[in-house]
Amino acid sequence: MQSSRETWFLLISVPIYIIFIGAEILMSNWGNKRLYSTKGVIQNVYLTLMNAGLDLFLRWAFYVSVLMWCYHHHFFKIENAYLYWFVLFILEDVAFYIEHIIDHYSRLFWAVHLTHHSSEEFNLTNGFRSSVFQPVYRFVYFIPIALMGFHPLDIVFMYSITQTYGILVHTQYIKKMPRWFEAVFVTPAHHRVHHASNIIYLDKNMGMCLIIWDRMFGTFQDELPEEPVKYGLTKQPNNADNPFNHVFHEWKNMAADLKRNISFTTKIKYLFMPPGWSHDGSSKTSEQLRKELM
Prior knowledge:
This protein has 294 residues and is an all-alpha fold. The chain has helices spanning 4-30, 38-72, 81-105, 107-113, 143-147, 152-168, 179-184, 188-194, 212-217, 245-258, 264-272, 286-293.
């Protein structure tokens, strides 16, 4: 189920992606920075195709119907068109922030999301390095928005717009934006921090378009000149060339933990506590690792 607006937006955004990515590849090669590899680009395309295929299937088969039911039971509605779209943007950005926090702080959801972070490269195509199974549950965060009187097709359309912005901040070529812009919006510098495996940067800068939520709720971290970003995971998957390992390797790790001779309650914790949590201290969460640095 795709509205004519989404089709129109897709026809505009795809050429923009092609131009920007092509320009970044040329600058990378001319400057001998080698920010792109053929293997990395293929992985990113493969992951986004899997995500998009699942999203389109679930949209048609399931989740738009759920959102439509919620919309028909909404408890108020904004009539002013300008206010309607502004509030929808704010609500979706908040919803993404909450989803992103849960993706990073609950291991079950991190197992889905970590594919977006697994590349040791950072370029515009990493914006397409999608968390494959996220469409299975992402719509849940839109349910409150539908109940507030926002039409599901408008919700999906706004998500497409914000996703486009989120893709374009995956670059190393923009160092800093103007100070006022950095204070309000997510910038490439903020998002480089988000993709870092440096302990000080872990689980920071969760916003999609607005960085104000991170500043308000204590998840903001500036990019530090003395701490160059190292991209990827703190522990890269074994057999990283296997395309299925990028999607399933943390599920395998969880299965191994659940087979341990531990209590049922501890098994549940291995599913829902933050990544790195362990009952015996054999591995540590990002917060525990940060405390060790102090």
